Every structure is written in structure tokens, then in C-alpha cells.
Amino acid sequence: MKILVCISKTPDTTAKIAFTDNNTKFSETGVQFIINPYDEWYALVRALELKETQGATVHLLTVGGADTEPVIRKALALGGDESFRINADSQDSYYIASQIAAHAKQQGYDLILTGKETINYNGSSIGGMIAELLDLPFISIAAKLELNGATATLNREIEGGEEIVQVNLPVVVSCQKGMAEARIPNMRGIMAAKSKPLTVVEPVETPTLTSIVSFEMPPAKAGVKLISPDNVEELVKLLHEEAKAL
Amino acid sequence: MSVLIFADQSQGKIKKAAFEAVQYGAKLARQSGGTATAIVLGEVDNAELAALGNYGAQKVLHAADARLNDIDSGVAAKVIVAAANQEDAKIIIFSHNFDGRAIAPRVAARLQAGLVTGAIALPDTANGFVVKKTVFSGKAFANINITSDKKVISVMPNTFTPEKTDATATVMPFQAAVNDADFRVKVTSVQTVSGEVPLTEAETIVSGGRGLKGPENWGLVEDLAKALGAATACSRPVADSGWRPHHEHVGQTGLTVRPNLYIAIGISGAIQHLAGVNGSKVIVVINKDPEAPFFKAADYGIVGDAFEVVPKLTEAVKKLKQ
Ligand SMILES: Cc1cc2nc3c(=O)[nH]c(=O)nc-3n(C[C@H](O)[C@H](O)[C@H](O)COP(=O)(O)OP(=O)(O)OC[C@H]3O[C@@H](n4cnc5c(N)ncnc54)[C@H](O)[C@@H]3O)c2cc1C
Ligand SMILES: Nc1ncnc2c1ncn2[C@@H]1O[C@H](COP(=O)(O)O)[C@@H](O)[C@H]1O
């Protein structure tokens, strides 16, 4: 069993969001970067659980510049076996997915796990694209994944509930909460990660189909209107007449 | 330019998010003098299909194959791409709901089309084809130019209010060229909370946090929700403690919701919670701590004890609705 976990680097969930260069670049000043929470807590940890319970090799892959290496090392410290960095910097999901698909084609994975979405660009796109490029089934936004031989049973989120699906490996899955319990790396893992392989691969030729023109901050809120707890009728009236929300 | 819109259905009913997507696609088609065609997969009755015309679809392609009732993203993508080719549609529109998230990326990859997910405005075509979406979990917007010839956009649910007209659509059968071997995902069971509005489609949401102390107090939230005709949601620790089911958890690691009205009760307003709700049009916060960060993101607030304020609020809402 060979599992690939796609890892992306994102600003910490509490990072201050600001832009530079005439609002065309995310300002990294003072920002701490982490493994995208969905990739770490759910995709990676579920892969590690599967490795522990039924044996598997877990590969980690990120498409990014050298600045993503600390994030990959952290993922290795949690327990990945081997890691790859495709040396390219792009925000275009087709470009990223094509790189991952090219790597996966060579390696031949039974299971490819991604996060539900990155918390910076909120694409929710890479997993489905990889699946299409490799002509594999894709289970989106799964909250549970069990393996029984070559068959996977998954819970996939749908509006107001979930559906339980069965699919034969190989399969691409995007992972969300429910998949696994978060872990923290221990000292032994951190030491071991230092000697685990991190192979840098040059990207394959692929077109870029989108580009970010600019960023904007949302308009500032006017400020909260406080209403006395003894006068809830006033709140209902404001919601009805002023906000037209009732 | 001709536009194809995937109109998502569930158990034979077209979803509200699909009407929003159809309306978005129809406006886009009109801008460039093209035809707006909707495609529906699976068994849906004719009245439902015709209703797509009310939101601007000129044509509806219906692939009535019962094997398409459940979504296998690979099969759906194949059928949608075949329809796009038949209609010579250069732009394909989805809703950024669960099915859209599964299928749109596949269609984009298959067509080598640039993809923007979660659009919150019509494309600006003055200089390229620039689509606005939220990024950083609602904390900012990005304007993204799609540079490829073919384009795929998914529309953020609850962002464009569907406006019904009298217009009608021509419904045509669409022969899906798929065989049994194409189906690789077997849906063995579907579990939905019946009779409730899904959170992502709800107009009004009443949400509770740890300030409510325990699951036994949720009657407070439910009564207010009932009076408002609202759906209920919760903060992450509430779901993690098992006070409420996981599908109610909103925020950075839960659902993103954009209701008209979001009422937060006993929720502090941590940045990860706000990430899932800051697209709401009106936010009301009820919290006993005047320093709770949520007040900074709120339109209206009551500093007070939820156990006293909420029952009174429920009564006041009932009075208004009478
Ligand atoms: C990576 C990451 C992702 C996360 N993702 C999410 C997410 O998706 N969604 C999410 O919600 N959280 C998320 N969190 C957790 C988040 O940081 C907060 O811990 C959480 O939102 C707090 O929940 P709460 O407001 O219900 O509880 P608390 O922070 O404990 O707040 C309870 C509030 O209730 C008020 N209160 C108490 N008693 C009363 C009363 N009688 N009447 C009125 N008010 C009262 C208090 O003043 C307080 O403000 C995430 C955290 C991390 C690190
Ligand atoms: N640059 C990247 N390198 C590797 N994996 C990525 C990258 N970007 C996104 N992913 C994976 O794809 C998932 C969805 O990302 P997105 O479609 O961009 O929201 C993430 O949770 C990651 O698992």
C-alpha cells in the first residue's frame, strides 16, 4: 500500500491578512506559516493511522519554493516516510494539480489524499483535478475513510448530511474533519525527520490558466449597534425595519 | 458566448443553489449575446426542469438516466463536458456546493479550462475575464483573471438571490454516453436531516457556543430558530464535545455559511469561527462579555445573559411574525 499526501503551506489561522505591492501580493511580514490544517490534521494523520494499522508507505508532496521545506519537515516529523518538493511557485490550481498528477503517475499510489481546501486560497480544486488527470475516482470532502483490502468505504459530505460510498482503489480523496484526531510531533519524530529523504523535483511543462490580478480587503463594518438586554423588542424592530433581515 | 450551467438536484428536486448558478450563468450569457443552457443529471420531473427557465435558462438538457441520480464526479464530468461540446459552451458554471466542489475541478481539468471557485460577483470583462472570490477564509477578496479560452466558475451559494421571472425554457433530453464501467463510486446510503433546511442554504441561522453551558440548554437555540424559521449551527468546541452533531459546526474547519441573518449566542467570536460566518449579511451577537471579539464583527449586539435574553427575543419574534 502506497499513500500520497498532498501538503500545502498556509499562513497560521490567526495571521493578520494584509497585502503589499499595490495589493497584488500577500504580506508575509510577521506571518507564521503552518501545514494547511486539513492536510495535517485529517489527510496526513489518517494516512499515518492506516500505515500503523495495516502497513503502508506514506509519501508527502508539496508544490512550492524552498520556503516550503520547514512545513514538509514538520509533516515528516509527524510520521511521513519520504517527501518530495516540486520546485515551482504557482497559485493556479491546474498547474499545481498537473505537477502532482505527473509525479503520481510515475509512483503509482493506491491512495492520494488532499485537504478539503487550502485556508488561504480556498480553492477546493486540486483533488478533483488530480483525479481527472489520472482518470481515477474522486471522493470529495470525506469525513471518514476505511479500507477493506482494495475497497474503500467513505463518508462524503452533502447538503445537510452525508452519503456513504464504496469505491475500489486507487482513489483520490479530499479530507475534512472527522477523518482523524490531530496529533503533535514528538522529539523522536522531529529527530527522525532530519534524516528522512526530501527530494526536489523540477516541474513538468504545464500551462497556467489563471492569475491573481489583485487582492482587496472587505469593506469595514459600520460598527456594532448595542441594544439593551431589557429591550429585545427594539432589536426585533431594527432587524425588521432597518436591516430587513426579518 | 454560450454558457452551460450544471443545475444540481437532490432526490429529484433542483437545489436552491442551482437556481442561483443558473441565474449567474444566464446573466453572463446575456452580457455576451450567447445562450444559457442548463444541464440536469438524473431523474427529475418536468415541472422542476421548466422552473429553471424562470431563472434565465433558455434551454434545459435533461440526462434522465437513473444511474445519474447519485453523483459520481467522474461520470458527471464526462456528461457535462459532452454537453458543453455539443452546445459549444466556452463557459461552464457550477454552484460551489458539495457536488460543485466534486465535479467542477474535474470538468476544468478535462477541458484544460481555468477554474475559479466560490465566485461572489459576475466576471469583469473590461480587462480580461476577472472573477472575484473570497480568500483567506473570508478575510479578503481576490480578483482572478482566467486566461484560458474555456472557463469554469463555481458560484458561492447564498450570494446571489434568485429572482424569479415568467420566462420559460425548452426542455430537451440529453443522451449521456456513459456505460456501466464508467461508474466507479457506489453510493450505499444517504443520511440527511430530513425536513430541515441545509445550513449552507439557510436564510437565517441561530448558532450557539460554549456559553450555553451544555446540550440540555439547546432548547433555547431551537425555540428561537423555530420562531424565525431558521437553521441551527454551533461553534467547533460544541460539536467536538458532542453537544451538537458535527454537521452543525461552522467556521474555518467547518462549514462556511452566508445567511441573510446570523445570530450568535454565547460564542466568543474567535477568528476561526468568524472565518466561516463573516460573509453573513447581518450578524447579531448575544454575549454576556462586552469584550467578546464577536461584537467587532457584529451589526447588532446585546450584552447580556443568554438564558435571560434569548427567551425574551423568541417571544418578540413570535409577536412580529403573528
Ligand atoms: C486551526 C483552528 C481551527 C479552528 N476552527 C474552528 C471552527 O471552524 N469553528 C469554530 O467555531 N472554532 C474553531 N476553532 C476554535 C476557536 O479558536 C475557538 O476556540 C472557538 O470558536 C470557541 O468557541 P465558543 O465561542 O463556543 O467558546 P468560548 O470561546 O469558550 O466562548 C464562549 C462565549 O460565551 C460567552 N458566555 C458565557 N456564558 C454566557 C451566557 N450565560 N450568556 C451569554 N454569553 C455567555 C462568553 O463570554 C464567551 O464569549 C479553531 C481553532 C483552531 C486553532
Ligand atoms: N502547492 C501545493 N502542493 C501540494 N498540495 C497542494 C498544494 N496546494 C494545494 N494542495 C492540496 O490540495 C488541497 C486543496 O487545495 P485547494 O484546491 O488549493 O484548495 C490542499 O488541502 C492540499 O492537500
UniProtKB/TrEMBL annotation, chain A:
A UniProt-annotated Pfam family: ETF
GO cellular component term, pick one: cytosol
GO molecular function per UniProt: electron transfer activity
InterPro entries: ETF_a/b_N, ETF_b, ETF_beta_N, Rossmann-like_a/b/a_fold
Keywords: Electron transport, Transport
All residue ranges annotated as the Electron transfer flavoprotein alpha/beta-subunit N-terminal domain in the record: 23-210
CDD domains recorded: ETF_beta
Family label: Belongs to the ETF beta-subunit/FixA family.
Name the record gives this protein: Electron transfer flavoprotein subunit beta
Source organism: Chitinophaga agrisoli
Automatic annotation (TrEMBL), chain B:
InterPro entries for the chain: DHS-like_NAD/FAD-binding_dom (IPR029035), ETF_a/b_N (IPR014730), ETF_a/FixB (IPR001308), ETF_asu_C (IPR014731), Rossmann-like_a/b/a_fold (IPR014729)
GO terms, molecular function: electron transfer activity; flavin adenine dinucleotide binding
UniProt keywords, alphabetically: Electron transport, FAD, Flavoprotein, Transport
Lineage: Bacteria, Pseudomonadati, Bacteroidota, Chitinophagia, Chitinophagales
All residue ranges annotated as the Electron transfer flavoprotein alpha/beta-subunit N-terminal domain in the record: 3-187
Obligatory cofactor(s): FAD
Protein name, UniProt field: Electron transfer flavoprotein subunit alpha/FixB family protein
GO process terms (BP): fatty acid beta-oxidation using acyl-CoA dehydrogenase
Gene3D superfamilies in the record: HUPs (3.40.50.620), TPP-binding domain (3.40.50.1220)
SUPFAM superfamilies reported in the protein's UniProt record: Adenine nucleotide alpha hydrolases-like, DHS-like NAD/FAD-binding domain
Cofactor note: Binds 1 FAD per dimer.
